[in-house]
Records
---
Amino acid sequence: MSDLIKNASDRLRELIMESLGILVAEGAVPAAEIPAFAVEIPADKSHGDFASNVAMVSARSFKMPPRKIAELIVGKISLDGTEFERAEIAGPGFINFFLGRKWFSDVVEDVLRENDNYGKTDYGKGKRILVEFVSANPTGPMHIGNARGGAIGDCLTSVLQWAGYYAEREFYVNDAGNQIEKFGKSLSLRYMQICSPEGLEIMKSSSDTETVCREIYGEDGNSESFPMPEDTYRGQDIIEHVKNYYDEFGTGLTEVTEEERRKALVDYALPKNISGLERDLKKYRIVYDNWFRESRLHESGETMRIVDKLRETGHTYEQDGATWFRATDFGVDKDFVLVRANGIPTYVVPDIAYHYDKLVTRGFDKAINVLGADHHGYVPRLKAALTALGVDADKLDVVLMQMVRLVRQGEVVKLSKRSGKAITLVTLLDEIPIDAARFYFNLREANSQFEFDLDLAVEKSSQNPVYYVQYAHARICSLIANLAAEGIEIPEKANLSLLDNPREIELIRHIASLPSEIVLAAKNYDPAKLTKYVVDLATLFHRFYDSCSVKNAENAELRDARIMLCSAVRIAIRNVLAMLKIDCPEKM
């Protein structure tokens, strides 16, 4: 696995240090400490392939003008036998370095040799990372926020794996606590509505589920006999569960206690919901390594053991019968309750226990959570509790995700959570291709808001970024197939030094940056860097293809070199789309 840009950057840093060593030995500059200096790729490539500010930052140490230092370094630096052909001084003392032609040939050869593995690095050194994302409430269907979180979390995990980490995907199933109580209450009320004399009469008179539901529950989802309070779920999924239960088992639950009825209905509906979550996520091309249930923490006693650990270390106190955590000792704005006066732990306790399990019990080097932006106040409390438990809170990183606005025909699509008419993940995927959903939700950084244009997502034009990228791949495949039909195959060797057109150089330079972009995306937890990279790659390829003929090149040698370049572009596009789990069609 190679990263020719990183290798060149590292080599350049060594060459600069060697030249400074010579200058110190000769007495041309004093033996002073050399400040940290940058070796970077300039935005304007006419300024070189790499640039360094070493002369600028060393001026104070050497008590010498930066340009003079730059002249001394350039005078002593030896580029013979390296990737670089020359160095130039710019402005007050910046040094620009230009790569030789062989480096660009090496890039194409490297891509073709590494093929499906091109872009992978060992940057992460196999460190173990657990990425938790979506973890949608299992009491109902997944919404648009889950759709964005799913695409970001899944693609981030792939990016981490390509960057050399051992990364796993995990879904945390909230199958205990207040939301399950609310779920049971909602199911019970809907069931009793069906089983009321009015409901049973309506059930007998019609077999059409929609008509039955409307007549029993009314247009507002309510009924006179069993009204639905504000703190209940009113979605269509709740109605379908109780209707299905009634169809299978009848009215038997009307004869049991409210507690027994709720338990029976939850035991019936919850597994179906969890199974539905798994099914819908698989449709979205997300397959988890682990489904971790909150109930497991309660059943094993881990939830209350966490409270005991915090008590033992003196980080709690009792007030009004409740157990409080001294969060203010750890920089949080206020203390918070761990266990209520009735002995029931608050929702944050199992969350603390869960993260303790991730980082201590299972020993992951890092835990990454992809959460909605509304969790920003929750994160410091969680980290404070982990610190109190002796866990390095820096091992927990959180990607806060802004909501996305859906737009159709220039108008924002209105979502209504209370009426149960919100666009869900499933209904979204019925409207737009999965490729478009996964690509679009990774077009921007997680913490940025953006509008998802539903019309553009299905448009087959260059305005649609995922179509534009896929078309570049298909265009290359078509070119290679057409050449093969004429007896011209992808050559094993070619004179790649002939690729010296500015469009070719620009394209090769961008291909070479893929490993570095993957590492940067992994460091910043930002898969959007890869969607930007591949859109830019497609743009550069289309420009090259429209100005540099492949089939009708000036001679066979140049044609073969360009065929190899096209093949390298195809590999780079395919590998990025594979990382994002997006199809790579050969024909469009």
---
Amino acid sequence: MSKAADLAKTSTKAGFNYLWGLVISTVISSLGTIFIANLLGSYAYGLYGIALTVPNLIILFRDWGINLAMVRYTAQYRAENRAAEIRSIFIAGIIFEITLGLILSLVSFLLSGYLASSTYARPELAPLIQIASFSILAGGIVNVAAAVFTGTEETSYNSVMLVCQSVIKTFLIICLVIAGLGTSGAIIGFTMSSMIAGLIGITFTMILYRKIPRDFSYKLEIKEYTKEMLKYSIPLSLLTIVSGFLAQFYAILLPYFLADTSLIGNYYIALNFVVLISFFALPITNMLFPAFSKLDIKKDKLALKNVFQFSVKYSTLLVVPVSALVMCLSTQAITTLFKDSYSSAPLFLALLAISYLFSATGNLSNSNIINSQGQTKLNLKFTLLTAMIGFPMGYFLIMFYGVFGLIFTTIVAPIPSLVLSLIWIKKHYDLTIDWTSSVRIIASSAIAAILTYLLVSFIGNSGVTNLIINHTYAPLILLLSRFISVSSAIELAIGTVFYMIVLLGSLMLTKTLSINDLNSLRAMTTELGPISKIVHIILNTMEKIMTKFKLI
């Protein structure tokens, strides 16, 4: 338990440092998206999204799983006190990413005309794809730097890199679009910001490189460690290619079968809002892998079992409530920022959030624990199974049902692989999920979401919102109304506060959290600085209420 607790504390701190950068960068990018979407309109914004699908497809063939291999070996070598070898890991990964990134950027550039005319039947996309092609190289540099930061658990560097990228991207895109460059300006801003972020990431990587203790008897073995990482990562690269190609296959089919580009713009707006959930899912996913990589199932079975159950329970406690909140307030969130410009986006957003509910079944932990123990071929098999289901299902459902068919496919296709991974982990590692806790968290979130939805519906239909607006300082309302829908913003604020109150009450009434859980959460959050004080106040208050009303 002590080893598991130490890993949980370290991963929580690293995850928090990853989280604040993700939140700030996404908020900045989201603000930029609001301006861009309103400036471009749904048609031009749809072109912006479509133009990025080609580089995103080619990106799948870029790193060959090297980034995950870097994270795994960096974490493992740190745990085994083999610091000198980390230098070779760093340099080998950087050289590999830059070399392959350059080659694939040129491939994308040369294929742009053919793809724009033949695949999308939109020749105007060709110059946009050419500009976006250079984001393949830039993204590779950003990702290899992120792998270094994750493996060393120096995720504050990653946060700085992400924030810089979002600030630069937002500033450049808004300026270029206002200057009259339209969709081209948006693509230029996106590509240039990725390049600058890559340079920042490499600079931070060199700082960490110099901090590694030197062993002058040890020489860099770039070729040998590249081979070692590729031996581990080839199944992961195929996994990434298959799963990524599946996603891009859907993205290509959507404009092919759906002539309404405005509806596609609504879908991409909904995708941008789903990042509100990924605020919590991504740090968990990224930090679990190095944590699991420090443990060996043969030597640390008890610690691995505890870390696995911690990871599933507490990731569920974060991700499921946020998903339910997004689902019940999707209309208010979209309408607040875009008024009536994207009328289909709220429904798309609510449906997209469903896939995150599967965190209660361990989908954020299962692949990480399997990969960390070197079973990368197994995860490849699970991915191939998802692809075998997803390709035909996606083709026919998108053909007949458009965006709804796409969303349904992304939710249903991974379920068989998820079930099989749970069975395999139980059989070979004897690791299980605390199903009682998962069910209670889902039930608590559902209760809070249903009551919140009923409340905001009542407020919207009863005139309460107008009453609040009429008693607010009028010039302020007029100023805000130029940028947002004030009535929806009020409903969103009231709904969010009400949801949190009901959720905490439901968690206590259903006895989802025990005193041991509260103590574990306190220990895990002790190194979060000022945030830990706020978290501890909430936990202490919950403990007092639970003790007083005998909800322990």
